[in-house]
Amino acid sequence: GTPHPETHYVLALACPDRPGIVHAVTGVLARHGGNITESQQFGDPDTGLFFMRVQALVPTARSVLESSLGELEREFGMRWTLDEVGRRMRTLILASRDGHCLADLLFRQRQGRLPIDVRGVVSNHTLLEPIATFYGAPFHHVPVGSGGRPAADPAARADAKAAAESTLLSLVEADDVELVVLARYMQVLSDGLCRALDGRIINIHHSFLPSFKGAAPYAQAHRRGVKLIGATAHYVTPELDEGPIIEQDVERVDHADDVTELTAAGQDVERRVLARAVRWHAEHRVLVDGGRTVVFK
């Protein structure tokens, strides 16, 4: 028969650590004529888990390769994903009023520097619609309450939130969305939604947490004379802002910076950190290890 065209695959896996895992994985790839182009591994002595990410050119149909990996899964108790290198991950971006992270992600995607396929932008306001339209991303206005303002009555507020989340989940299902990015989406998600999207929802927040909670964190930081500002990208879990951290960065500031300058510097760090986290997730470089992550850069 005619030879199968070569496909550039990326395999990411985790399993209990023991001898012979690398040998078994590379053996499967070699048996199928695979040529490894990138390989990284890490054994975590604290959790006893082994993590590996391999890219390989393999002249074999995906189903054949998957069935061989299924055998390894049974033998080693392995969790694994197989994808094509560079395939764009179907993504939904959520944002509220601040557009810096949204615009940055859409720009990077258009430049071909972010392997995501933005299937839509969801917002509880209409302010950012022009940005989505400029980049050709479908815009969904999903208000949480009347006119974007939360309802005064707690029961009505809970109903509005449930309705908004149900709309969000239906968008995820309709487009078979693989990744949800909270690009400064200022709504707390319910535990149920966090669990439904476990491991595929990324948030960005300023690293002042938990020191400066609530409104105007940069004004609070300015009053306290902070010398470092930063940002953290993490997976979303039911515990608010406590999910496994993917990436962090900081910027030095000083007494001469006013609140506007602090905010601008903070937004700069936020968009950089979020873009890195999204790219690494979309390239299958991030593996969850209990409460933390292993990131193969």
Low-confidence stretches: none
Shape: globular
Spatial strand sequence of the major β-sheet: 7-6-5-8-9-10-11
Along the chain, the helix and strand elements come as EHEEHEEHEHEHEHEHEEHEE
Q: Which sheet architecture does the biggest sheet show?
A: 7 strands, mixed
Task: Characterize the quaternary organization of these chains.
Answer: single chain
Question: Distance N terminus to C terminus?
Answer: 39 Å
Rounded average pLDDT: 94
Q: What is the gyration radius calculated from CA atoms?
A: 21 Å
Which bin fits the share of residues in helices? 25-40%
Structural class: alpha/beta
- Number of helical stretches of at least 4 residues: 8
Beta strand %: 25-35%
Annotation, overall tally of beta strands? 13
Q: Could you explain the architecture of this structure?
A:
The chain is built from eight helices and 13 strands. The protein is of the alpha/beta class. The strands form three sheets. It has a seven-stranded mixed sheet with strand order 7-6-5-8-9-10-11. The longest helix has 24 residues, at 259-282. The protein is globular, with a radius of gyration of 21 Å. The chain starts with 6 loop residues before the first strand and ends with a strand. The model has no long low-confidence stretch (mean pLDDT 94).
How would you concisely characterize the structure shown here?
With 297 residues, the chain is α/β, with parallel strands linked by helices.
